[in-house]
Amino acid sequence: MTFLLWAGFVASAVLVGVRWVDSGAGTVAVLQSLLPLAGVLSALLLAVAVVTGRWQITVAAGVLLAICVAVVVPTLFGHTVAPGRDDLVVMSANLEFGAGDAVSLVTAARQHRVDVLVLVEVTPASIQRLRAAGLDTLLPESVGRPSQEAGGTIIRARIPMTLVQAGLEPVSAHAFDEPVVSIARPAGEILLRAVHSWPPDPAGAADWRSGLAQLQAWREQQSPDRPLVLAGDFNSSWGHPGFRGVAETMTDAHRAAGEAWTPTWPQGRRLIRPFIQLDHVLSRGLGVVDAGVVHIPKTDHAAVWARLSPQHG
User: Fold this and answer.
1) What residues contact residue 98 under an 8 Å CB cut-off, 6+ apart?
2) Using alpha carbons only, how large is the chain's radius of gyration in Å?
3) What are 23-48's pLDDT values in tens digits?
């Protein structure tokens, strides 16, 4: 029993400590997504150690649990602002190679009164299904392009927008289109970038990390006086140092809304429940009114949305 408890402690300690390891290794990225599991395991170890009178393990597990609590608790308190007339509702959805259910997506966009919709992994066939579901009427403005593979990214909008950048030049084959648009609002223009980072799979984990570094560098180059939104599938979470670098100086809409534990992936699996938030809406110079997720059938990502207020930036 003692050996098993110490083995569990070592596993928990690795999951907690790896959160601060900045690496482009795929294995490290996977472990960094499992901090909630470390908290559960630490709590279980603490309970068993107390009941069985193993005080050394009790102290060790208690320290680990305290670290997990210190990381998680501050994210549970929201700081939203009051709604205003000029609020901007942004939604992002990964269609998983275009398979996401078009009717459900258009219905969700209509129900949440979405102004700007970021779509990643858009294929030509999915464009046809979205058009048949009424997307052209709901969000007539469009920039970006579909693709037969996972790289297609399109931004749809109810309001006028201007294409600023069609997509960044890929540093390798492991990169997706990420168009940038300027959105005209009464309070001033808002710069929005669609985000679709490469996943940290074994073949492209190094490019995943360098892609996040490039995204951080791009964010740092933008004027702090201009409201900025990053929305899409970052293929990373707050457990990844690369994502924390991107999100520095920005507000995570779901954290601000008190919805820090909002796993968006993987959806629709029988044996694996959603356990990590890969999809985000980050903003700077805007207040967060509300945020949430929407389950879209036939895709492994939940859609995320946020209502942002320029009056409280």
Assistant:
1) 121, 122, 123, 124, 125, 126, 146, 152
2) 20
3) 888 888 888 888 777 788 888 888 88
**Distance between CA atoms of residues 84 and 306, nearest Å:** 14
Produce one character per residue of 10-39: b if its CB has 16 or more CB atoms within 10 Å, e if not: ebbbebbebbeeebbebebbebbbbbbebb
Q: What six digits make up the tokens of 54?
A: 């193993």
Q: How far apart are CA 234 and CA 104, in angstroms?
A: 22
CA 108 to chain centre: 18
Estimate the crossing angle of helix 35-52 against helix 2-17, to 10 degrees: 150
CA dihedral defined by 294, 241, 33, 54, rounded to 10 degrees? -130
For the cut 70, the answer to whether the pLDDT of residue 162 exceeds it is yes
58-91 per-position pLDDT tens digit: 888 888 888 888 887 777 778 899 999 899 999 9
pLDDT in tens, 261-286: 789 999 988 888 898 999 999 999 99
**Can you tell me the distance from the alpha carbon of 284 to that of 281, in angstroms, rounded to the nearest whole number?**
10
What 8-state DSSP symbol labels residue 80? -
Looking at the chain, how many residues does it have? 313
Whole-number Å distance between alpha carbons of 308 and 251: 11
pTM for this entry: 0.92
Backbone angles phi, psi at 310, to 5 degrees: -75, -15
Check: CB of residue 102 under 8 Å from CB of residue 130. yes
